[in-house]
Amino acid sequence: MATKLRILQVHDLYKIRGGEEQVVEDERALLTSHGHQVFLYKRDNRKLDDMRFWGKLCLPFTTIFSVKTYLEVRKEIKEKQVDILHVHNTLPLISPSVFFAAFSMKVPVVMTLHNFRLLCLNGIFYRDGHICEDCVKKGLCQGVLHSCYRDSRSMSFLCAFSTKLHRLLGTYDRIAYICLTEFNKEKLLEAGLIHPKQVFVKPNFSERLEKAVTKEQRKDFVLYAGRLEKEKGIPLLFRAYRLAKEQNREMPRLLVCGEGSLDTACKRYIKKHELGGQIIMMGRLSHEELVSKMGEAKAVILPSLWYEGFPLTILEAYGVKTPVICQDFGNVGNLVRNGVNGQKIRPGDIKRLAEAIADCDELSCSFDLPEAKLWEKEENYKKLIEIYERCMEDVCISEK
Predict the structure, then answer these.
(1) Which of 116, 165, 179, 308 is the most buried (most CB within 10 A)?
(2) CB burial string 34-68: b at 16+ within 10 A, e below
């Protein structure tokens, strides 16, 4: 593409850093390396804890429409002569007002759906230990009833009201969406809220290292990388190691890399069941340290209990030719092929999970999959630019 674009990324940072932040940074670096100018408009959810009384009092209103966001984004678009807006997360500080700022300046908007937030209040189709799609089938009131957003009925009501209001206003009808997988696209279209022509599929991407460590050079450990939360399957993984200990089964050590609400509970569990020699809590590592550890591991474990979006952990594992052990459902199950790049197990099967980890020496990993082409950097870049061009063309046509 000859024309170099001026792109404004928009992202509301989470309290605990996750894959979304890495994707935003990676895409910015990728676009910049091809000569495009990329600017970032961000807010930080960690500041919610330090917010003063009046700020917290106004939060229910600013979550629906933030005048601050509207004015600041309009200013950014005008001063930086932005060609396209690429939104990642707006909740709760940025709000959907960012879309109206772009509409008012006649700038096209693309939004990457990293989760199922448009359809489900907690964004993950998961509650009380099981997959739940009640918000789609019975309405957003179900999410309010079960306090799905931040375990708060009032915050859930606020989130539901904002989503419903902007559906009625047609806010979401004027946006193009990037789904990370065909599975995510199907879920979005099943709800009947978005027209298929608005939806594109573009996965995340990863560096591919041709000189990865050989199987013989791998160290005797497997690795979990992610937030320490129930929906990520941490309790399931720890119980698998406890079961292996009770059965005197030899297991590679488990390195747990990440942070979250279960951090203290994990350490207590390790102490209570005397798993200190088998499970090592590493805390949050830098991206470079994490990828390096992945490259030495025998396998990466993803025991997630929810559908997932498109776990960057999987691509990073594949990039260093490390196989993945996961549960066979949702996006993770669709991204792993038995005997090609890992092993899938029946959801919730602790015994089989323990067996798969114990036998991980036999696993292999390759990029020999039809969909793997788009996981690589340059092909992914071409797809992203193609989406931008389509959206900009549609805006130009609608103005005539």
Answers:
(1) 308
(2) eebebeebebebeeeeeeeeeeeeebeebbbbbee
Cα 72-54-142 angle, rounded to 5 deg: 85
Site of tokens 């009201």: 161
Relative to beta strand 221-225, strand 253-257 is parallel
Q: What is the rounded distance in angstroms from the CA atom of residue 158 to the CA atom of residue 121?
A: 10
Maximum distance among all Cα pairs of the chain, rounded to whole angstroms: 73
Buried b (16+ CB within 10 A) or exposed e, 315-339: bbbbbbbbbbbbbebbbbbbbbeee
Give the C-alpha distances (Å, rounded to integers) separating 50 from 55, 67, 175, 256, 300: 10, 20, 33, 30, 36
CA pair distance 32, 18, nearest whole angstrom: 22
Nearest of 115, 139, 142 to residue 127 by alpha carbon: 142
Instruction: Return phi, psi of residue 327, to 5°.
Output: -85, 145
> Cβ distance 223 to 293 under 8 Å?
yes
Kindly list the strands in the beta sheet with 279-283, ordered across the sheet, starting from the edge strand earlier in the chain.
Answer: 279-283, 253-257, 221-225, 299-302, 324-327, 342-345
Structure tokens at 353: 């999970």
Pairing of strands 84-89, 199-201: unpaired
Strands 324-327 and 342-345, sheet pairing: parallel
pTM (predicted TM-score): 0.90
What is the residue-averaged pLDDT of the chain? 91
Cα 293 from chain centroid?
21
Instruction: Write phi, then psi, for 232 (nearest 5 degrees).
Output: -85, -5
Q: How many helices (H) and strands (E) does the chain have?
A: 15, 14
Q: How far apart are CA 255 and CA 236, in angstroms?
A: 15
Element (H, E) at 399: helix 377-399
* Residue 48 half-sphere exposure toward CB, CA atoms < 13 A: 19
Task: Give the CA-trace dihedral at 252, 258, 261, 264, to 10 degrees.
Answer: 50
Task: Decide if pLDDT at 53 tops 80.
Answer: no
Per the CB < 8 A criterion, the answer to whether 299 and 323 are in contact is yes
pLDDT category, 150, cuts 50, 70, 90? confident
Task: At 300, list the tokens.
Answer: 């990466």
Of 52-56, 214-218, 349-353, the poorest mean pLDDT is in 52-56
- Token pair in block for residue 161: 């009201």
Where are the alpha helices (H) located in 108-181, listed in sequence order?
A: 134-137, 141-145, 153-168
